[in-house]
Amino acid sequence: MTEKRKRLVINISLILSVYVILFVLIKLKVINRYYEGIMIACLINVILATSLNLATGFLGQLALGHAGFMAVGAYTAAIVTKTIGMPGTLQLLISLVIGGIAAGAMGVVIGIPALRLRGDYLAIITLGFGEIIRVMLFNLDITGGARGLRGIPKLAGFNVVFWVCVLVVAVLYAVTHSKQGRAIMSIREDEIAAEAVGIPTVNYKLLGFVLAAFFAGVGGGLYAHYMTVLDPKTFNFMRSVEILVIVVLGGMGSLTGSIIAAVGLTILPEALRSFSEYRLLLYSALLIVMMIFKPGGILGQREFSVQGLLKRLKKPVVEGGEE
Amino acid sequence: MQFIQQFINGVHVGSIYALIALGYTMVYGIVKLINFAHGEIMMLGAYVGFFAIGLWGLPFPLALLVAMVFSALLGVVIERIAYKPLRNAPRISALITAIGMSLLLQNIALVLFGPDPQKMPAVISKEAIHLGSIQISYLTIVTLVLAVGFMILLELFIKRTKTGKAMRAVSQDKAASTLMGIDVNRIISVTFAIGSALGALGGVLYAVAYPQVEPYMGIMPGLKAFVAAVLGGIGSIPGAMIGGFILGIMESLTKGYISSQWSDAVVFGVLILVLLIKPSGLLGKNTREKV
Hints:
The complex is a heterodimer. Chain A has 13 helices and no strands. In chain A, α4 packs antiparallel against α9. Chain A is mainly alpha-helical. Chain B is mostly helical. Chain B is built from eleven helices and four strands. Chain B has helices at about 1-30, 40-55, 60-85, 90-115, 140-160, 160-170, 175-180, 185-210, 220-230, 235-255, 265-275; strands spanning about 120, 130, 135, 210-215.
């Protein structure tokens, strides 16, 4: 118990110090608006990647429509804000929750037919779902059609995005370390065996998938209230693939891996502007090479922790003494 | 009358979907993998056909042959490089590799050929036979004859030859067929080669029908062909043919009577319905899970 509490204290102080440092740097104008934008993009990608990791890394179901869920959340949250129109953060939180619920409901609708079955149907259904969402965004009136949705109040700044991101990751960490999380991981390891020991696999598959959709919707809502303009073209299949690349690179089944990879893969293309033409070529090659040579990604299924790092530094001889 | 016209258009597209669906279903039957790169193999086949006709000036049948041989080799190479090392890995790894391969081919095509669509030369006359008020174009007839002809050839190959028999054996039980002296690696290569060649045939016919080629042309037909394969029962060869025709006809009728913008949504609606009502598809066998 003390070990657990110690870890909690370390983590909270770590998060707080990161926040304070960034906050002070922004206030001192060391971090200008451009860098602040990149930071917010990093944080939103962290939300999207960790949530996809729950479905793909922990549950072991390939989902290819994360941009679709993000779009549902983004548009719903934006429309809610525009119709209610209360000022401030409370409105943002309400919109985020409603956006998340809308995305989660979509997750239920396509999760039930796909997850009742064993096999790879989820991949193809989510792929199709992403396309349908895009067609709908382009053709419906309420979403502004191809022109996009404009004039969303800018309610999300660095503070809100940072704390929502922390909250999402904390909830995902709690879920993956709970009884439900262990049930979800057992399905990934062996679905037949999981069913044989009495785990209701369909329910838990749905739970994992719908939670992932919900948080993708929340991430989309933040995106909408930061960008203030939504363009349906941004929620295409390539967006889903980018999120998948982050998850695969960071390690399927490692939340901290997703965080590291999300930050890295958001900053890298910004730093290397000229190479952006070949970004997708590189991403696709990366997927194949990673799967063949290092399917675990950077962190595999382990989590990065300060204590584990310290332990390892003290006893450098011991191999892989993380736990 | 309009109904019959839309129906004929549907049969035309459907025969193309059926050809592409065969590749999905054959590969799935043997290695249990959704080969996401199949749509891109079809796209590259169409490009080769385009160059063979437009650049090298080959006659249409020869161009078809070149495209099919090229895609067959491409399919075998992809399997060797990307899928074979992962044959015993978790399924999700193989699936992610397939997605990666699909994107890689797409982006290679984008770099090599540029993003703009290029016009496919009209190789088959646009004239049509008139039966009352119904028109059947020569293109539709050629497409249908080629598609059905190759399907019959495939059926004969699988039912009558030794290699075909080996393919059926491998799809039933890989380990047991190894014990019976079947070279499983060779059979998998043959499967990829045949599937990819049929995909290229579909690709060239598709490019001739909507007279253009572009790097993204493989995505939607690929997805729809997959839906067709699931509809017919994935792993079942006659199922893929029937599924392709049904899907083509359904799509064409949606375009004619409801809205062309929503026809893609209807296709995926069909997929969701099939998975809800009869997940094994029209001709699929209900297999019991064995441990």
